User: What shape does this take?
Amino acid sequence: MEAAPPGSSRPTEPGPCLSGQRGADHAVSASLQSAAGTEPGRHPLAVAAVLPAGGCGERMGVPTPKQFCPILERPLISYTLQALERVCWIKDIVVAVTGENMEVMKSIIQKYQHKRISLVEAGVTRHRSIFNGLKALAEDQINSKLSKPEVVIIHDAVRPFVKEDVLLKVVTAAKEHGCSDYDLEFGTECLQLALKYCCTKVKLVEGSPDLWKVTYKRDLYAAESIIKERISQEICVVMDTKEDNKHIGHLLEEVLKSELNHVKVTSEALCHAGRHLQQIILDQCYNFVCVNVMTSDFQETQKLLSMLEESNLCILYPVVVVSVHFLDFKLVPPSQKMENLMKIREFAKEVKERNILLYGLLISYPQDDQKLQESLRQGAIIIASLIKERNSGLIGQLLIA
Assistant: This one.
């Protein structure tokens, strides 16, 4: 049983779930536990998912099957797996993939550290692929790591924005109404026909607008835009603990808050312990502005880059780091400062291999209040653009506000 997407409408606010949605996730999980009968004395409902991923994507018009097409340099199917893995009550996820793509799928699972994933060979049709996935779940094999579920969710590998509440509705409907083997002969797209003309025990669950399917090449661009929007909703301004540096850092923070009122802007000190900053990284903030005051080296930025490299944050999404330098050109010749600052190209090339996008921003300091505020506003606009676009072509560039 699967949710039906309502037409071809595009989502308003879909995308990968970030830290701010965790409270909602707990509420949904609690609802499922109640619906699935996990009160004292009752066993929890065993749920698994099957993803048919054996298609060649003819309508996409590209040589790569659409489930393996890159979005932000990461295969589309990885986003779908991530969405299902976030649902803790889905115990097993079975992916049906063609034999020629089996190794590709294994490398994706390993690279992006996906869990609870099992692979089966796809059939010649989507329906047969689903059947092969169900067969793997139904078989009681001694060495099998799969447990036989009571409800199986069938989900397209190219619908990356499914949310837990929709899956909950599907599972609840399956528990209440049941679904017979006869449905598989008609295929999951024919549930409406089965409901209208047959006596099959089935219920059609209306999907949410963000369940749309990546079918054409233009859909890849739409999906990329949605993902960029979602991971650009939080910025952490990182500064050292010196009082003068904190002052200019907080000025930049306030301007960012003013200019980007739809984005959450926080600040943290880059100290040796770095516990608070580590927590921000763990909470999945993907955008950092590192403030360097009266210095043309990258010591503070390098500390931040080291912390990011040691974390697993960069595995799933590209992390943006904007190294901001406030410099007084009256004290040291501009040529000397610029020579030091151009080292950013070397750093950017190195960290790009670990999915970190490093940019430079130069602001003259000190200035009178009016000119400083204007420079900070221009800087905020540049920072917002770098974070929103995540343009690989601009990494290692030193921009001037």
Q: What stands out?
A: Confidence is low (pLDDT under 50) at residues 1-25, 36-41, 180-188. DSSP finds 14 helices and 14 strands in the chain. The two ends are 54 Å apart (CA to CA). Residues 75 and 90 are 22 Å apart (CA to CA).
